[in-house]
Amino acid sequence: MPYRTFADEQGRSWEIWDVRPERIERRGAERRQEQPTPWTGLERRVSDRRPKRGMRMRLTHPLSEGWLVFKSDEEKRRLSPIPANWESLRGQYLRALWEKAEVIETRVREQSA
Q1: What are φ and ψ of residue 104, in 5° steps?
Q2: What is the pLDDT of residue 89?
């Protein structure tokens, strides 16, 4: 998993990484279809073959294609879809992506008295 860091105009440090939802159910609908006549032969499957580990969720486009996470001590942002070659971009281009990213979490820092 590629990992980058950069500093914004205020000098805050940001971590950046991509999330690719490989273990998340990406199908929009069930693909199995009802047969006009029910199967009467021997059942070949002994169990459901799909893995049961973890939670399954359906993601819609563009999240189904993955996203970039931008994380600082105070804030988290998400940008989707993942821009091509983001791993090799330099400072000002990373900042431009950061500016386009949606704020998804803000943490309040405790003020020391």
Answers
A1: -115, -15
A2: 92
